[in-house]
Amino acid sequence: MNLQCARLRLAVRMTLVAKTPAHEPPQAANDNQMVWPFVPFPPGWHASG
Hints:
mainly alpha, 1 helix, elongated
């Protein structure tokens, strides 16, 4: 059990160190740098949430 706790602490510490710099926002993997156009719904259609 102690060995598992030590490995867990090490894994958490490594993820905190591996974070991206604060001055550079993370970029999405599928980011194609385009702004998508507004496409309205056809007459009589609506979105529901």
